[in-house]
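Structure ticket #2291
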Amino acid sequence: MNEPLQTTLIHIAKCFNDKKITWGLGGSALLDLLGLNVMVNDLDIMIEASDFDLATEILNQVGEEKYKTFNPKFRTARFKTFQVDECDVDVMSGISVFNASKWFDYDFSIMKIASKIKMDMIEIPLMSLEDWLQIYQALQRNEKVDLIERYMNERARFTTVP
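Resolution: structure written out below.
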């Protein structure tokens, strides 16, 4: 992850953690932090539904909301994009994606936080790779699906004890 994105992530994490917002980092930033070789262009942050308004209020204070065009393949309950410190930040709650004639739904909660890391002494909650595999499958992001599956297969191969 490049330095501007990392600085923005730390800034947002401090603000969210100070207000006790339940959130998790996902998307390509998650993949990057787990050691997968991906280009990180923005931050994808899931917010627990009950904290969404407070989270967007904070992001409005530290950045500026950007307009996103409507896409009929999505009916995500809550979704907003912000520009914070020159970086795009997508915040969402209640993902819903239309794929193969059905809807894929994903609700984020504190139970979906798989692990936590620290950056500059600030805690960053990470979503699970398995959840993002499902999300990328629904989004038909085949390159990322293949990357995650290869990574998971390699990990399983080296962690399996006969």
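Closing remark: Helices lie at 3-18, 27-33, 52-62, 129-139, 142-159.
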